[in-house]
Amino acid sequence: MRILLVEDEPRLAQVIAKGLREHSYAVDLAGDGNAALYQTSINDYDLILLDVLLPGRDGFEVCRELRARGDATPVMMLTARATIDDRITGLDAGADDYLTKPFSFRELLARVRALLRREPQLHHDRVQLDDLLLDGTSHRVSRAAQEIDLTAKEYALLEYLVRRAGQLVTRADIAAHVWDESFDPFSNTIEVYVNRLRKKIDDQHLVKLIHTRRGEGYILDPRSTPEKL
To answer: N or C: more exposed end of the chain, with fewer CB within 10 A?
Structure first.
């Protein structure tokens, strides 16, 4: 999952970003409203964490602009302005949630998960595909009741494939949602991680879940045909 964090206080932005990355999220940063609007125009995000008090265009303006141009990405506003009127203004501007500072990072994570659960494939924290079980709260993964140890990035890749189960996902799709803006599109990083994930998920099982369509992308589906070589 790729998140845009819009926060003008550098230290706070780094603390939040570090915590999110430790929980398998890819995070891009923007320090003001104009930068946020630019980032959202060139990248595809799964969630936007948007501070209200920003230099130049504030969070309310940014949210209104996003909705006016048809961007339906979930938006959670983060702000010290905790009055009822401020919350109403934020929600009326198009925000999906509103969290006041200071906040518990655990609560932020829970609200992030709640917004991302609106995806059709992730209505629940626990998702099962064939004998593969993914727990979105604990980030534990098991297959045939055997727990699988994944790194944060391996988990993020698997979670994205589960969200798109049965669909062909391209390399560009994966880069846009699992990695952040520092990703090198000319590297073989995605192929390396898919191979690592395949070894952990599929090697000991007769039914293979991760399939490659040569020159096209990948499919996570127990009913898929074997790889096209």
So the answer is: C
CA–CA distances in Å: residue 160 to residues 24, 37, 64: 11, 24, 28
Question: Are the C-beta atoms of residues 153 and 178 closer than 8 Å to each other?
Answer: yes
Across the range 35-64, mean pLDDT stands at 94
Distance CA 217, CA 212 (A): 6
Sign of CA pseudo-dihedral 131, 132, 136, 141: positive
Find the angle CA(178)-CA(2)-CA(82) to the nearest 5 degrees.
160
Coil, helix or strand at residue 47: strand
For residues 136 and 109, what is the distance between their CA atoms, to the nearest angstrom? 11
Predicted confidence (pLDDT) at residue 203 exceeds the cutoff of 70: yes
How would you label 6-15 residue by residue, b for 16+ Cβ within 10 Å and e otherwise? bbbeeeebee
Question: What are the C-alpha distances in Å from 86 to residues 37, 61, 119, 142?
Answer: 21, 13, 28, 43
Confidence of residue 229 (pLDDT cuts 50, 70, 90): very low
| Domains in the chain: ranges and CATH | 2-116 (3.40.50.2300), 123-220 (1.10.10.10)
Helix H or strand E segment including 183: none
CA pair distance 196, 153, nearest whole angstrom: 11
